[in-house]
Amino acid sequence: MSPTSPRVPLSVLDLAPRSQGMTPREAIEESTLLAQEAEALGYRRFWMAEHHGSDTFMSSATALLLGHMAQHTSHIRLGSGGVMLPNHSSLMVAEYYGTLATLYGDRFDLGLGRAPGTDPMTAAALARTSGQLHDFAAEVTALHDYLGMPRAGSRVRAIPGEGTGVPLWVLGSSTGGAQVAAALGLPFSFASHFAPDQLREALLVYRSRFNADAETAQVERPTVMAGVNVLVAPTQAEADRLFTTAQLMAIRIRSGQPAPLDPPVDDLASVVPEQLLGLAQAHQAVRAVGTPESVVTALEGFVQDHDLDELIVTTYTYDPVLRRRSYQLLAQAWGL
User: Fold this and answer.
1) Residues in contact with 81: Cβ distance below 8 Å, sequence separation at least 6, in sequence order
2) Where is the Luciferase-like domain (predicted)?
3) pTM for the full predicted model
4) All domains of the chain, ordered by start, with CATH?
């Protein structure tokens, strides 16, 4: 990407995170303020990810939250980042998102994943299908059909939903999701913000196998969005310190001790046992943390390295005001 090339669109991924001392309602109210801010700043999408059984994230009932966000915004695209299909009937998902589209118009994206979005015991309580590739592809195809125009003789219909054509995205963190997105001719969003290891391989699979002629195809060419952990502050030192909240969150989740977001610390090693420090590295893989200028440089390099069409960024701070400030600084520096 040359300095004069237009930058790709930026979108926001949110899980309604809750900080220590914050009630679930307050966490959702803060996410509502963030959606309004994202709209005012010019971000393309505001997506919310389904997550269950966590004291950290309040985004389990994603469709309900997106309806709430639609009531408090006017035009930003809203979507699931994503709905975890093993937990749901494809018919019910079509009805939920078809209802949203019926109420609020063409403002919704339906991002679809096959991970459970929770711990194994909660997943067992939620699970409806296996999440295997063939089951997942079949469910995505069914959703496409439910949201399309009704077919003659069809006895199972999503009402409201049919005819709304809510756009579908396949989400993934491996080559599995890339295969499904390619075979069905759908846009692909890669979870490089938490699982970057197979990014290059997955994008190669997706682009080389993309079938624009699939009956389910919704884009004419491979279309890729990728996730990045971002934290922008006036100085590098402040950004690094604020980012320790996200690192502590990663340590808690990966060590089986989820909790509301911790305040930032001056030295991670002073509060985390040495044997757990390595768990924070997973949260450092695809990230851009620093001043507006340094973050823009990092994001531009990431876009160029992987030939991306869009970035979706996620930010965690203990103080939600500083989370909004981060998105403000990024929008200004990116030229939204």
Assistant:
1) 13, 47, 48, 49, 111, 171, 189, 312
2) 17-302
3) 0.93
4) 10-334 (3.20.20.30)
